[in-house]
Specification:
The chain is an all-alpha fold. Helix content is about 85%, strand content about 0%.
Length: about 190
């Protein structure tokens, strides 16, 4: 799979959300939802065109956007699109938890090319992301149930990314510590050979 420039990757992931935000502000949630659905399909197609592969997390997110966006438009009920982030985050958390309980660290599959960590490091990272996904689901529920639709859309577009970046940066000491452990183990194995 061809590597994508990080800024282009961010654009492909954030682009549909920005379209959602802009069209929602101009024409309301239902038009915003339709535009979001179209934009996410275009972003996936562009991603595939560039890399010749479809990234797993954006694909799962797109499927849920299409299902819940479709229900929102079909039933003229905004609750479905508002519940989508809750369900997606709980699904990602559940997948990681089931993997952890069965000795399969799925996060290593997603991030294994970016980091080389000790087994303990991958376990800590997996637990942290499980908790984070549950936190995001609860936060989404709190925002959409207690604030206006426009506030929820703004939170979804401009709140989740900074929170995720802060969370990711907070994990850097864990990554550094367990990356060093993994390198020390490899080094010790080479010296013993």
């Amino acid at each position: 799979m061809k590597q994508v420039n990080p800024l282009l990757k961010l654009g492909l992931e954030m682009g549909p959300l920005l379209v959602f935000f802009l069209v929602n502000n101009l024409h309301g949630l239902f038009f915003g939802t339709g535009a979001f659905m179209v934009a996410i399909v275009i972003a996936l197609a562009l991603s595939y065109g560039i890399t010749r592969a479809v990234p797993v997390i954006p694909l799962v997110t797109a499927v849920f956007v299409l299902i819940f966006g479709g229900l929102t438009l079909l039933l003229a009920d905004e609750v479905f699109i508002k519940m989508k982030p809750t369900i997606v985050n709980l699904l990602f958390g559940a997948i990681l938890l089931v993997g952890l309980l069965n000795g399969r660290l799925f996060i290593r599959i997603l991030l294994g090319t970016a980091f080389q960590l000790s087994e303990r490091g991958w376990q800590i990272l997996t637990r942290a992301w499980i908790i984070y996904f549950i936190f995001l689901a609860a936060l989404n529920e709190a925002v959409w149930r207690n604030f206006s639709t426009d506030t929820w859309v703004s939170f979804k577009v401009f709140g989740v990314l900074p929170i995720t970046l802060i969370f990711s940066f907070a994990l850097l000491p864990v990554i550094m510590r367990h990356s060093n452990e993994a390198n020390e183990t490899k080094s010790a194995d080479l010296h013993e050979s």
